[in-house]
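Appendix C: a fully annotated inverse folding record. The material below is reproduced so that readers can follow the format used throughout the book. The structure is listed first as tokens, followed by the designed sequence.
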């Protein structure tokens, strides 16, 4: 089965179309205000109306409150909710129950103990292993930093999982071969500047991921 591909942090109809044309399966709308990839609920509504039907829309949140989640899910017509903050398993359960959508949990990885935390989130619908950002960093992800993929060796959790963190057109095929990830996720790896997606890089990333 082909790997699934998520291009995260989209903000224009042209780039959502480019993702569909290149073979991506998921796109991410970033609802974290400090991020250069942030989209407002108004922007997300416009984007969702122009998103090709074959793309699944994932909303990216960091410790969101209920009201903001509700507004964003409705505006973006989201297919899944990705939690990138300090949310615990009980919050995952409450959010899934409230919205009836799959809930993804991002796990920040630096050590094998970080990978083991996946066992705490057996109630997630999907896990995304990402790079632990340095202390004091302004953002919890999207910084183009990778982690040691060998830390995932032997991981056999029951929850489906994907790989993020520093992936780009040059290394994504190796990442898939090395880890066996069934989904790869990139944001800065297909940008010409923070928050500015590059159509050619999107195409190159998808081509490499689909032919590892």
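Designed amino acids, in order:
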């Amino acid at each position: 089965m082909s790997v699934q591909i998520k291009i995260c942090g989209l903000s224009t109809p042209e780039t959502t179309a480019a993702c569909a044309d290149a073979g991506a399966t998921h796109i991410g709308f970033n609802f974290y205000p400090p991020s250069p990839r942030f989209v407002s609920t108004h922007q997300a509504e416009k984007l969702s109306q122009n998103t090709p039907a074959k793309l699944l829309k994932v909303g990216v949140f960091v410790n969101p409150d209920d009201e903001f989640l509700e507004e964003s899910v409705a505006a973006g017509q989201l297919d899944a909710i990705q939690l990138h903050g300090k949310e615990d398993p009980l919050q995952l359960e409450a959010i899934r129950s409230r919205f009836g959508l799959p809930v993804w949990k991002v796990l920040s990885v630096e050590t094998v103990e970080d990978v083991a935390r996946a066992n705490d989130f057996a109630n997630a619908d999907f896990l995304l292993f990402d790079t632990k950002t340095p202390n004091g960093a302004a953002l919890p992800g999207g910084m183009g930093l990778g982690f040691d993929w060998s830390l995932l060796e032997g991981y056999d959790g029951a929850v489906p999982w994907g790989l993020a963190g520093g992936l780009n057109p040059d290394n994504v095929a190796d990442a898939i071969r090395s880890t066996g990830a069934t989904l790869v996720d990139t944001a800065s790896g297909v940008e010409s500047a923070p928050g500015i997606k590059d159509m050619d890089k999107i195409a190159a990333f998808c081509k490499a991921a689909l032919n590892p």
